[in-house]
Design brief:
Layout (H helix, E strand, L loop, with lengths): L1 H11 L4 H7 L6 H26 L10 H5 L6 E6 L7 E7 L5 E8 L6 E6 L4 E7 L7 E6 L8 E5 L9 E7 L2 E9 L4 E6 L5 E8 L13 E6 L5 H15 L3
Antiparallel strand pairs: 1-2, 1-12, 2-3, 3-4, 4-5, 5-6, 6-7, 7-8, 8-9, 9-10, 10-11, 11-12
Length: 250
């Protein structure tokens, strides 16, 4: 009976193993045999549980920075953009690369103001801050490096003259110089980002994402962002967020 009672106690409290073994080190009683046997069984059980956890991992290991996994390639980068946050009670974006790795994320609480949006990498490191310019004519947004509040990298202005120019959605400038023009329809998830400095060369594109089997579209909440090698993916994603703010009701 004593051995059975000790057997149950050790099973419920594995930390007692070392103490019992020290007190019973010179004993060859059945109690010591039971302790050693169940210590080995628990070790095997822990090993099996670790294998199961590794097999059921949803996401692979995240890269430390987006530049290491996206900006070194000379080929175009194809990203899958999902208009949904991974956090509860938040809206935003979740962005994966072609390998299924999480590379960008945006998490905004439902009741928080949408005038300040932070684009983060997979680990939550702030990459760019996107802020609406106050007291400006039309819809104007500023893009900052990290979480700084001075010296914006880009300024995005919405095209308000849709009667004479329906193709252009927005213009992107840097230091009062026009850099990019965005054309197309964000509501249809069909946009092109053109470089004004390179004779309107296409540097990024938003397209509908279709299923691998059957060619069925996912809808407006899931789409592709194709970024050419000369453009930083985080910059293209920042412009995508700005388009969503400008035309989210379309």
């Amino acid at each position: 009976p004593h051995s059975l009672f000790l057997h149950l106690c050790i099973y419920k409290h594995p930390n007692l193993f070392s103490f019992v073994q020290q007190t019973k080190s010179n004993s060859s009683s059945p109690t010591t045999i039971i302790i050693k046997t169940h210590k080995k069984e628990l070790k095997q059980r822990n090993t099996q549980n670790q294998k199961k956890r590794s097999m059921t991992k949803v996401h692979p290991k995240f890269p430390n920075t987006c530049e290491e996994s996206l900006c070194d390639s000379k080929a175009a980068v194809v990203l899958t953009v999902w208009k949904k946050s991974l956090l509860f009670n938040c809206d935003g974006f979740t962005v994966y690369n072609s390998n299924g790795d999480l590379v960008f994320r945006v998490d905004n609480y439902m009741n928080s103001p949408k005038d300040n949006i932070v684009l983060m990498d997979a680990s939550g490191l702030p990459l760019l801050s996107i802020r609406r310019k106050k007291l400006s004519f039309g819809d104007c947004w500023m893009v900052y490096d990290g979480e700084t509040e001075r010296n914006p990298i880009f300024t995005a202005n919405k095209n308000v003259n849709i009667l004479t120019n329906r193709r252009t959605l927005a213009w992107i400038s840097a230091k009062k110089t026009m850099w990019y023009e965005i054309e197309g329809s964000y509501g249809q998830r069909s946009c092109k980002m053109l470089d004004e400095r390179r004779n309107k060369k296409k540097v990024a594109e938003i397209k509908k994402k279709e299923a691998m089997v059957g060619g069925v579209a996912f809808g407006k909440d899931v789409f592709k962002l194709i970024v050419e090698s000369e453009t930083e993916p985080r910059v293209a994603m920042a412009f995508t967020i700005i388009l969503d703010q400008m035309f989210r009701s379309y």
